[in-house]
Amino acid sequence: MAAVKPMISVEYAGNATIVRFTDEKILEEKDIKALQDSILPIIESASGRINLILDFGNVRFLSSAVLGLLIRISKRIYECEGQLKLCNISPKIYEIFKITRLTKTFDIYESIEGAIEDLAQNE
Amino acid sequence: MYRRLMASEAPISCSIVVESKPSAVVEVCKEILTKLETHSFGKDDVFAVHLTLEEAFLNAVKHGNKMDPTKKVRIDYSVDSDKVEISVTDEGNGFVPDAVADPRIGPGLFEPGGRGLLLMSAYMDTVKYNQRGNSVYMVRYKEKPNLKKGLGETDV
Predict the structure, then answer these.
(1) Is residue A66 part of a domain?
(2) pLDDT tens digits for B15-58?
(3) Does residue B130 carry a pLDDT above 90?
(4) Considering CB atoms only, which of B54, B112, B119 is closest to A68?
(5) pLDDT by residue (tens digit) across A26-75?
(6) Which of A14, A52, B15, B18 gives a 20 to 30 Å CA spacing to B106?
(7) What is the CATH number of the domain that holds B52?
């Protein structure tokens, strides 16, 4: 049996679903496709709107294809009138978001607690 | 935005020709990044070159060679104590870099793709395409940590 790479872990806190990327590097297209195939069903299976927090705490390297995945995820969430928050992004990865001006598109928080708190206030 | 490359502008000392498939970039990165470390390039340089190589190589495989497994990607590179020069060439028909929309503006901001070229330009000091548009030549000069500190930056 082929080894299954743990790409994400999922937990719940208050009204938020927290998806944590478990890999340090997210590069290969097959990995990005696997992430999409893991995350989109979580959004679809939520009853009603979802408040999703993506935790980048383990991620040290990613390619522009991951940014594309985030755009697709955000579109799907906004279609469901949910909310998407990103958190724990390392300075080098944050620089990629700044260069591409995605800091203006996504709600980005320093910590997971900040993202959870903001979601709780918006309820 | 991009200047066309004259062949004489690219003094290159090593060449690698690999299969046109996304996973082939792993060995290419390993070889070039190891040489950067040998030449005492810092972490920021290694991060920048790694990201750029990933983006340029995937562009060559997907957009240049159109995922055709019979085609090849050629990487020419040179590393010395001051800079790294890299050319990535595919067997495709090429493209016009100036015709690529800026993903930071308008609807491009919400499109899933189109950010690879922007990142390459941001992380490398020089990015040029050949006339045909199937080869990109890039240079990054080594970060000078002592100079940065002299300008007021401190170690993190």
Answers:
(1) yes
(2) 999 999 999 999 999 999 999 999 999 999 999 999 999 999 99
(3) yes
(4) B112
(5) 988 888 999 999 999 999 998 779 999 999 999 999 999 999 999 999 99
(6) A52
(7) 3.30.565.10
Q: Which long-range contacts (CB under 8 A, 24 or more apart) does B36-40 make?
A: B36/B79, B36/B84, B38/B79, B39/B79, B39/B80, B39/B81, B39/B142, B40/B81, B40/B142
Chain A CB within 8 Å of residue B39 CB:
no
pLDDT at position A30, please? 86
- Please indicate if any CB of chain A lies within 8 Å of the CB of B23: yes
pLDDT band of B145, cuts 50, 70, 90: low
B51 and A63 in contact by Cβ < 8 A? yes
- A3 lies in a domain? no
Report how many domains make up chain A: 1
The CATH number of the domain where A103 resides is what? Answer: 3.30.750.24
Cα-Cα-Cα-Cα torsion B138, B30, A62, A10, nearest 10 degrees, comes to 180
Count of structural domains within chain B = 1
